Amino acid sequence: MINFSKNEKIDCEFLIIGSGASGSVASKYLVDQGKDVLMIEEGEGEIASKNNSFSKSFLNAWRNSGITPIISKSNFAFGEGMCLGGGTTINGGLVWRTPELILRRWNKSLDTNKFSVNNLSKYFNEIENNLGLDTKHNTNIDENKESLKLLEISEKKSLKVVRIPKSINASEIDNKLILGRSSNSKNTILEKYINYSKKKGLRVITNCKAQKLFTENEKIKSIEVIIDNKKKTIVAKNIILACGATQTPMLLKNSFGNNYLDSQMQNHINFRIGVKFSNPMQNESETMFTRQVQEYLEDGILIMPTSFNKSNFFSSLAKMNNDELSLIENDISKFSSFIIQLQSLNKIKINNYLNRAILSYEINKLDLIKLKKYCSIFCNLLFEFGAEIIYLPFKKNFKITKKDNLDDIFKKNLNAKNLEMVSVHGMSSAKMGLKNEKYTVFNLNGRSFDFKNLFCIDSSILPSSTIESPQGTIMAVASQILEENFN
Question: 9-62+80-138+182-260+428-486 is classed in which CATH architecture?
């Protein structure tokens, strides 16, 4: 750990601001080249290490203790990590390759071929090797009953279902990988990238927030940071932004004014569905889900189980009375959770108010139509395959049974004012592009148009959202940018 003395100013060749998926990749890439690298992280250190209870440090692992409210007609919350390792510390370790349809859209919109499958495959291969990704699908790994239920539905209805690529230790067979909890089964970014880099000379400062960038002669001259409520200064030859989809835009706005970047964050919206089945669904030990329905990928829709956790399940049922909750508690082994994930058409607006991010959003009418369609499809399938009761993410009229007219229920109740939504995937809020394009401040190589030594490699620079969980894409695009600029 580095400590600033009273009047100390730290110098470095490379400063990485942020320690998540992209910042971690940058640390390894640069130290492997023998560079002098300093990484700063706004959150705490190794809060979720194997010797530390994840549940005890859970609130500190997330920005705003887990929930950043979004101003919207719906109940809408955004979650993002704020600790060493960023979102990779608290997620489930899923590392997807970018869907080919997304790469085609990127190449077409930007008139390039740099995002072709062939060009990115070497970066994905390296990432998967570093994380020991379960690409061969270890047949010894236990599959939870929710995943097997999804597999049963998909096979009998001829829907496309795939195994989930996880950064899981191939020798681990119990599949105990819950809510990003560190265990022997998860090869984490923290272990495989940050700690590796520290052994090779990476310096790390945690609880250190980048507050403002100062410029001179078309370069970033210094960075003001806040440590223990005190302002300090870091001087770096090269600055790499890896702060994430909300904090990179906020740092740019704080440094250069609100008009410098009109930031609109693309996102995936999660609609969590609780289900009571006729037969038990939960084992004594919790396991990670292993299947995902991709039948509707081209429509921006994914369907998957969630790793069932009783505390989290009950948190989604706060609107129920105590008698109803007691009935669920007594029959909890029959309950499961599933997610319908939507690639939203509208974007979350990031507003800077007194150096605080204020998020606002209005759901697109076409998204509501799409949700009605796929909620109806999936709920009908669940009832056909053993569901007795389904709990929907509605403020009112959220409990349905097989006897109900689902089309009528969704028509009357699935509207913006009645929805409860969550998003944990933010992207494209300071996206790369061509010079003088609206919202664009970085070129296709991740370099700032305005400052010669400023680069961005995190999720904010992606040309659009990815439909799939973006960790793998973030790491691959970051690797590509680093190679293009610092090889």
Answer: 3-Layer(bba) Sandwich (3.50)
